[in-house]
């Protein structure tokens, strides 16, 4: 199972449509008027927020954002199957075949039901890449190597977004909260969204800190278990924490623009 930072099994039109913040179909409301100067950033924000959802009370809908129960199953089960078959048989090929077969079955099921294929296809592609790497080296532990690179890449990209003062979670949460990119004019909001982005970076960093030592120690079963626990479940927790960290403080006066 690959550690994808975001997965949404049903990126429907309501993701960028009207929500409790009063956004219209372009994601702009009264607070986002006059943002023509940031048109490119607004467009990037809409794209980044495409798979994020809110609940009726205006909170981030973590479960739906990660693809719902079905998305969780599709993301987790191939890894469980690979680890389970390998633990029982200690044979690489049957484990890889079983994992790929399960991921393919999820894709076929979505195709038959005519439901969105994005998450299932991404999951299948991830499993195939992991299987290819492990089959090439002949080492079961190398099934988890692609995840190390994706975690490092996503973490580096988010770190860069903070460095250039466009923290990624500000683009995402600012859009779905109806703030557009105007949060950049308030130092408090900049710091809040930077902290929210750090929370997601911490997810990627924690995965690497725990899993790399297991990889180099050839602890395949422990590595597989860590990958399952620290996949979508840990990401969902980080996403929820990032949302709480960055929530606006009612009645707070704005600081001078940065």
Automatic annotation (TrEMBL):
The chain crosses the membrane at residues 95-112, 117-134, 154-176, 196-216, 222-245. The keyword Transmembrane helix applies. Coiled coil: none annotated. It comes from the Bacteria. Keywords: Membrane, Transmembrane, Transmembrane helix. Signal peptide: none annotated. Residues 15-25 have a biased composition (Polar residues). Residues 1-41 are annotated as: Disordered. This is DUF3159 domain-containing protein.
